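Might I ask for a little of your time on a matter of protein folding? The record follows directly beneath this note:
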Amino acid sequence: PELIDDFVRNFFVKMGLTRTLDCFQTEWYELMQKGQLNPEDVSVVPDIYTKNDLLDQDIKVLHGEVEKFKTAAQNAKQTYIRLRKERDYHRMHHQRVAQEKNKLISDLKKLKKHYAQYEPTLTQLRQKYETAMREKMLTRLERDRVVNQVPNLIILALQQQMATIPPLTATSAATDLPGKAYPLSSQKSLASHATGENRSNEAVVQRSPDSEFPPDTGINPYLTMQKSPCIHLTRAGGLRLSNTIEAHDMAVSGIAIHPRKKIVATVSDDNKWKMWAIPSGEAVMTGEGHTDWISDCCFHPDGTKLATASGDTTVKIWDFSKAKCTQTFSDHSHAVWGVSWHTCGDFIASCSLDHTAKIWDLNSIRCRTTLRGHTDSVNSVSFLPFSNTLVSSSADKTVSLWDARTGLCVQTFYGHMHSCNDAVFNLKGDTIASCDAYGIVKFWNIATSSMQLSVDVGPHSANKIAFDPTGVLLAVASNDGSIKMVEVNTGKVTTLNGHEDAVQTVAFDQSGEYLLSGGSDATIRIWS
């Protein structure tokens, strides 16, 4: 039990009434000393007040707990609302995914049903193809047999014709044919005429003799040319765009420079080849005859003919004096990517998607040699000047040297990690440059059969490359629409911008004064 004065003190302390507590204690002790307080005034506080105070404390504690429960309930309500929204979102997302799944399953069933019809069609087409190939082979054999029989049939016909003519003498002529006289000399002239006709027919039937490969003396006139700094390296500013020719309706895929005149030939995906005067850009001639895109062209060493390679699997020879196609070679089984003339002018090399390169004889009009060894498409072929050696590049990532006389591979260069698009000799013939589909350009020393420099002009594909006449500068046609100029000695790269689309081909003229480029924007650009 608590005394009354202690109760009052506790009340003041609890309420923070310190000054009132001091006054109360002063007056209380004063009255107590004077004896003015009654005994009931200093007795114990009645029990009800103590109980009320304890209840009041319990009520305050309960009020605090109620507030905590209210806060927890509010948080739980918010969490519930958030979870309900997430549940609704996920339920809607699940329904959408289920709908998409059902749609994909339906599409897959339709595709399976659609592609199931391809198998019998492919089988039928394969059977038709095999039948056509067998018929083609049988027709070719029948043709060869008939061609072989023609000379014998001609001789037999002439012999029968001669047998029907009676022997001519002076007496029989007068007796059998009155009014006409056939001297003995007529018989001789008739016989000689018959034998002459026989020989002429045999000449028509017989194939022209094969050309002889010139002796490989190993002498290259360009090797004596003195090395001099390239004018494009010494001139301030280097090459600049001087003219643009709207050449074709589609991409320009190949360029060839005339060996003696300032004329350039271009070929395109529009199945046409054209000739232009440079640097004026005037059209000189247009040729049509291929049934598919034309990939490359090359002038005859004396400039009187042009060879073109096409996606229709043929190589055509165009004679400018006759203004027409004079020869067509069609032994390749797939698209032909490139052509190159031998320096003597009697042979042409071509390369194809059928993994082979071929040497064509223009006198006997036949394939003299097939170069086999690459395991993928042969993308370029080029003769070494004044030599029977040629270089090829392939999608099998290799560059190979070949002997045209034997058809054997002399040397293979390994080092590219991607498909090789082009390989060329420099004019002196002591270095090969090659490029691949990731823009890597490599220079190979022919004497040591080793790589002497590698330059990265990627990541875009390097489509074609060309040495300048001095051999110290290499132009690279890049798929990013620019031309990369690589210094052979240092590997330094500069860029020429001007094309609006990928650059497909580049070529220097004989003097090195002009650089010509063709691109997918159907234009030729002249740099000087």
In short: The helical segments are 4-15, 18-34, 47-115, 118-163, 170-176, 184-205, 231-234.
